Amino acid sequence: MLLNHKYVITQHSSEATEKHPLIDFNGSLLISASWEIRSQAILDRIDFTKVRRVILIRYENRGKTQVSGNIRNRVKDLCKKHRIRFTEVEFGSIGETFSHYYNTAYSLASAISSSKEPWIIDISSMPRRLWCSLLFLFDRIDSIRTLHFYYSHPKYIFSEDEYRNTYYEHTLGEWSLSDVPFAPLAFGNGLYKTNIISTGFEYDQLKAIIYRHDPDHNSIISASPGFTDSYTRFADRTTERIKAVFEIPDSDIHRAPVRDVEMVITIAREIVEANNEHDISLICAGNKLHSLALCLTAITYKNANFYVRIPAAYKESPTPPSGQFDVVTIENLLVTL
Fold first, then answer.
1. What are the DSSP E strand ranges found in 92-212?
2. Considering the domain boundaries, does residue 164 fall inside one?
3. What's the pTM?
4. Is there a single domain that holds both residue 153 and residue 203?
5. Is 286 within 8 Å of 200 (Cβ atoms)?
6. 119 and 34 in one domain?
7. Residues 229 and 297 in one domain
8. Is residue 2 part of a domain?
9. Are residues 123 and 146 both part of a single domain?
């Protein structure tokens, strides 16, 4: 997909029939060690004889399990075995200040830009506000030709209430909307506001966000179909409830497969262009592949503001990988090989 005069976007999606698919890659890795088991899934997809450098992000909240430490030790062992340059970066929490995200993204971008080789950024367990900051910064400095964004599909754990109703709770407390360092700032006319919102499972938090930032016009992009049939049912249920509460017409409800980055970009483009005289906000409140699509849309359309949802906290959950993954490759045509 030709995003604009500057970027070509391609996507590789693993197939369910592949038992141990590998990513054909030569370059360096930016990964994180969280309490989610899936944050180590990428280690089984890479031939480490072809890796030159690894930067590992560790979070202040290591969790109550040993998962984060085990991932760190495994990465260090692989780097030692294959004589790969290893760097560890400490990061606070998801609720850190704007300046903390700014400084961390700037430091990471400086380290990554010191080499012209391709990089894989594993966004599976990395805060949206951090990796989106990196993407916006790379758009400014034009230093890297090829970036691969890797996403390991989650195997979410659902819960039941006392009435045996199934629900999903990945975040705790209320959400806030946060702007992202290095994202373009759009100043509209302030008269008519349009929100383009990628949505997921968590209805109560999403409803509260829309109430607090009530626009004149909401367009919903729902991740449907999802990774599994049960994910699709949850996403559709959330969408229908939001549609009913805010009286959103069918024409403003858009469904895109959870893995289809190109389709989400196309939908968002059409909405932005149809509402180009409005104050437009792109709001990431759904899955990370759709968030990546909205981030790329914001890079293309500088007249749109970009926000990510920040929960009060995440519910600690092991979140194992499903075995499937996606790699979205962004090629900057302005950077010479």
1. 119-122, 146-154, 159-160, 166-167, 171-179, 193-199
2. no
3. 0.93
4. no
5. yes
6. yes
7. yes
8. no
9. yes
Please identify which residue in the block is written with the tokens 């805060």. Answer: 127
Q: What is the pLDDT of residue 73?
A: 95
With H, G, I as helix, E, B as strand and everything else as coil, classify residue 320.
coil
Supply the range of the domain harboring residue 42: 7-157+317-332
**Same domain membership, residue 198 and residue 78:** no
CATH of the domain at 138: 3.40.50.11700
Q: Tell me the pLDDT of the chain (337 aa) as tens digits.
A: 998 889 999 999 987 656 666 788 889 999 999 888 999 999 999 999 999 999 999 988 777 778 889 999 999 999 999 999 999 999 988 888 899 999 999 999 999 988 778 999 999 999 999 999 999 999 999 999 999 999 999 887 666 666 566 666 677 788 889 999 999 887 665 668 899 999 988 888 999 999 888 788 999 999 999 898 888 988 999 999 999 999 999 999 999 999 999 999 999 999 999 988 788 999 999 999 999 999 999 999 988 999 999 987 777 777 888 889 999 999 999 998 7
Question: Are 245 and 263 found together in one domain?
Answer: yes
| Bond into 318 cis (ω within 30) | no
Q: Within this chain, do residues 24 and 114 fall inside the same structural domain, yes or no? A: yes
Residue 131 to residue 294: CA distance in whole angstroms: 13
Please check whether residue 292 lies inside any domain of the structure: yes
Residue linked to tokens 């109560």: 204
DSSP E strand stretches across 111-267: 119-122, 146-154, 159-160, 166-167, 171-179, 193-199, 217-223, 253-256
Total tally of structural domains belonging to the chain: 2
Closest-CA residue to 156 (of 170, 136, 135, 145): 170
d(CA 172, CA 273): 35
Please name the helix (run of DSSP H) or strand (run of DSSP E) that holds residue 87, with its range, or none: strand 85-91
By C-alpha distance, which of 152, 133, 146 is closest to 259?
152
N residues, the chain: 337
First CA to last CA distance, the chain: 20
Q: Is residue 1 part of a domain?
A: no
